[in-house]
Amino acid sequence: MLLSLSNEPRDYAWGSTSLLATLEGREPTGAPEAEVWFGDHPGDPADVSDGTTLDAVTGGTLPYLLKLLAAADPLSIQAHPTIAQARAGWAREAGLAADDPSRNYRDDNHKPELIVALSDRFEALGGLRPVADTVRLLDSLGSSVGAVALRERLSADGDVLGDAIGWLLSGTAQSEVDDIIAALAEASSEEFDAELANARTIAERNPGDPGVVVALLMNFIVLRRGEGIFLRAGLLHAYVSGLGVEIMAASDNVLRGGLTPKHIDVPELLSVLDTSPAKVPVMTPMAGDAVTAYPVDVSDFALRRVTLSGEPVAVDVAGPAMVLSTGGDVSVSGIDQEMTIPVGAAVFATADEKSLTLTGTGEAFIAMPGITMP
């Protein structure tokens, strides 16, 4: 069975006033439009065309949440726990009210994420840069007292990145944070020009926030349309700007590390954080391929991008699936139904649908549960 899905954009302050409207070919409302959720998450289940919501169909059992995400300003720096960490944290906080602002764990699940760019440029921060590279970046800040203090910490022994992040977020380093942010104005480095420009932009929008300096420790990533990154448990990250399709495990567990007025539990963040420096691999679609897969090693979700040029494209699906239209004229057919999907809307396919055929000219994304993990 196929069901038409839609939802209203969520008006988070970091949302874009134009990206979603432009995608859907409508006039902007003037308000920020940050995310459109296609899932059965109790926070905002998708609307079904018969007047019900998707959770009434699935019973709230969908293992993934599919979104359109449109960022004009940086999201909070954050990391997500493993399943084991989430279960332990959820149990520890059993006595806290569900809406307690000090609560870190909203459920007992992990929250790996995959983002694929829809805009021509999508900016993100992901993972921690090798320490030697960051020291060279900090050299561009000159003899700034804050930069000198941070370089000294990064030159020590042990988990220097974890120590630096804990210090920056502790509240005791605000004068050094302010000094580093001030030094950004005159900083110049051919090697790190993009990183410094990004840090200045973040600082303008988050004055005095220690997360500005945490961002200087992270890899700056620019995705082109169709490229994606997978953000596993423990990986520090933040989306900076752009429009994308995001899919994640059905969880709301977020440990924040800056660029937000929300609760930051520094010890808990550090307990889940992977402080090993490494680049985040960028997944790039092959030119000419009608179907692009974005392989991830989690069982919660799988995502395919389908580019249509007039010929039908059949895709095998397993479990409840969704087809999200992101451009052009797209239709989907299943066992005995065919539906046209407006851009920015989706179709839900129940588990009895084993293959979906897409027709038209345009682009769509197919979401479904992922591989079964041992």
Polypeptide structure, described:
- By secondary structure, this protein is of the alpha+beta class.
- It has helices at residues 19-24, 54-58, 83-92, 131-139, 145-154, 160-169, 174-184, 193-205, 211-216, 266-272; strands spanning 2-6, 35-38, 47-48, 64-71, 78-79, 113-117, 122-128, 218-223, 228-231, 237-249, 255-256, 282-283, 291-293, 302-309, 313-316, 321-333, 338-341, 346-349, 355-368.
- Strands 1, 3, 13, 14, 15, 16, 17, 18 and 19 form a nine-stranded antiparallel β-sheet that branches.
- Helix 4 runs antiparallel to helix 5.
* Tally of DSSP β-strands: 19
Radius of gyration: 21 Å
Structural class, by secondary structure, is: alpha+beta
Residue share in helix: 10-25%
Tell me what portion of residues adopts beta-strand conformation.
Answer: 25-35%
Question: Key features?
Answer:
9-stranded antiparallel beta sheet, 8-stranded antiparallel beta sheet, 19 strands, alpha+beta, 374 residues
Detail the topology: elements first, then pairings.
Blueprint: E1 2-6, H1 19-24, E2 35-38, E3 47-48, H2 54-58, E4 64-71, E5 78-79, H3 83-92, E6 113-117, E7 122-128, H4 131-139, H5 145-154, H6 160-169, H7 174-184, H8 193-205, H9 211-216, E8 218-223, E9 228-231, E10 237-249, E11 255-256, H10 266-272, E12 282-283, E13 291-293, E14 302-309, E15 313-316, E16 321-333, E17 338-341, E18 346-349, E19 355-368
Antiparallel strand pairs: 1-3, 1-18, 2-4, 4-10, 5-11, 6-9, 6-10, 7-8, 7-10, 9-12, 13-14, 14-19, 15-19, 16-17, 16-18, 16-19
Helix pairs in contact: 4-5, 5-7
